[in-house]
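Contributing new records

If you add data, match the layout below exactly. Sequence lines come first and carry their own label; structure lines follow with theirs. Keep one chain per record. Anything else will be rejected by the validation script.
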Amino acid sequence: MKTRNFIQQKLINFKDIFPGLVVCVLIGLISKYLGTFVPTLGGATIAILLGLLLGNTLLTNPKLYKGIRFSESNLLSYSIVLLGGTLSYQVILELGVGGVSFIVLQMFLTIVFCLIVGKKLGFTEDFRLLMASGNAVCGSSAIGATAPVIKANEVDKSITITLVNLTGTVLMMVLPFLTNLLYQDETIQSSALIGGTLQSVGQVVGSASMVNHDVLQYATIFKIVRIIFLVFVILAFAKLKKDEENHDAELHHEKPQAKIKIPWYVKGFFLMCFLFSIGFISTEVSAGFKQVSNYLEIFALAGIGMSVKFKDLVKAGLKSGIYCLSIGVAQIIFAIVLISILL
């Protein structure tokens, strides 16, 4: 009897999820296809923009809500786990001490800048933490992984993902001109500027492809090392939030919160990364993981785009634009200074 009730409940849940899930998958597939014609944008950015447009005009039926929520949360979590199966700890060795130091300092400075400037502009702490993780690590994947850990609301999550991707798209087209101007497209320095600054892997690939093949290869390595540090950023932010909750509890003579619980997808990310590093996951299987992870991320981004409402973006207003612009400029300045010192 319990088994029957369980199956019936799952079927009911699936029926609720199915319409919105199908819509997100279709938008994602269309965006993936359109991305082949507009590589400077890429499927990920198109998925967000198309989802944003349709979610505020034609596709506003409340019956789509549960499927959209499933797509933007669950599918992104699965994507993050599979992404771990494409990354090897060995890539760190290819950059050496100088390269890894550059990445760590670039990420640290970006996070500090996002938190300080965001506070000056009056943004909430959750919003600032999401902007910090998205810009410092790997865009929407980092925000999607960070949001549940710090208990951020869906509006903050959706808006920060949109803002980070739009910022990355602008930088993606600007950086190739800067690498030529500053470094005459020299491989390591150009790769560090692109791979150490841009928000998503797709943006790194798109931008580096405009320079040359060698820059594409090494910029991707710089980016992958940043992604490996995602887990540490998430745990640091979780610790920060937990300490604040415990402090508030002590002030009100309440029982402190329990220790930090590492989300399942973070554990899965690390486990898959370890299995790939020791050769348990073959390169062929890893390539399959990469493809599936990319598709799941695009489907999730379509859902995220549909969740963003124009009224929320308008509410964020000019202040958000100033915040994004200042972060992008600061990242470039940090990278240029660090490259001159370390590389």
